[in-house]
Amino acid sequence: MAESHPVVKDFMTPDPITISPTDSIEKVIKLIEDHRISGMPVVDASNHVVGIISEGDLLVRESPMQPPLYMTLLGSVIYFESPKQFHQHMQKALGMLVQDVMTSQPITTKPDIPLTSAANLMLSKKINRLPVVDNDQYLIGIITRHDLVRALKPAVTYESLPD
After folding, report:
1. Is the pTM of this model over 0.90?
2. Percent of the chain scored above 70 by pLDDT?
3. Are 106 and 49 in contact (CB under 8 A)?
């Protein structure tokens, strides 16, 4: 009897929660909190994956901004960057959209790929989730590190073993 090897579709989450590139960061935060997830695919109007956004992307967005560098010379302040540009950057940061902080061109996988290949890809690329796309590049699911851990659970329980 041939042993079957698990594939991505066996453990992926079908029809995952998604977000649009033009949605607000506030919407992402609400979805993450409401659904207790750590990230999600970003899809266009045709359900093609155009990015991925995660808690890590949001944390980078919240990292402190550096004010413009300056020096004083003979009692005058000389800026190396425009304070106006800094102010504009701060305003933009406060009103960012998903497309401004998402990771573009994310790595994806197919549903029939062996689970071990998906796991190796996540480990080698240091990513926590892979959008699963069909042959036309439409999003059909997502596989996460949590799903991989779930796949490690033995299929046979001790109660079902013969005496």
Report:
1. no
2. 70
3. yes
